[in-house]
Write the structure tokens for this entry.
Amino acid sequence: VTSSRSSATTATAAPSFVYALPIRIPSPYANQSLELQFDRKEYDVLVRLFSILDSESRGGVEKEAVREFVGLRCPVFRRRDRTLRKFGRSTTTFDEAWDAVMECSSSTSDARECVPDDMAQLELGLEGWMVLCRLIALAQYQEAKRRFSERHSQQTMRHKAGGTEVVLVDVLPPDPPEPLHSSGLVQHQAESTTPLTLPEM
């Protein structure tokens, strides 16, 4: 993953800090790239969180350490995993997010050729952590949207019997969670007016 820092100025605004992080997007967006942008607040928060993870200041964190940290701080992962099991899917939200980070990192351009054991040995650096946090924010957005749609897809019929209103609700089956991958970031940026910012942790 490569990055750049830039300062943007306008006639009415003071210079603002932007950390721009270009990422690779695998198929079906093979010819596309995406630039994730983080403002000063987002950057500082993510750096502080990474320093907690990287307690030995090695510059990289092992997969299981990240899994444990995220599992404790991201209840959306537990909720989404329960839903995935209901739909018979054996994958976990964390593994989906981890694989997505590995796929879109320019430093692991040959990740698809790695055997699973090699993938498990890869460590997450600061920029990989920033991409993972953006994917966590995407998962939180997708789950909130799915739960909202589920509530509003209920078909309500009102009948009056003897002056008493009875409400019958036909609850439709919920949709399964959307796959969590880097192309979802592309789709969100193209279709949504709500930018993804810091995940809730």
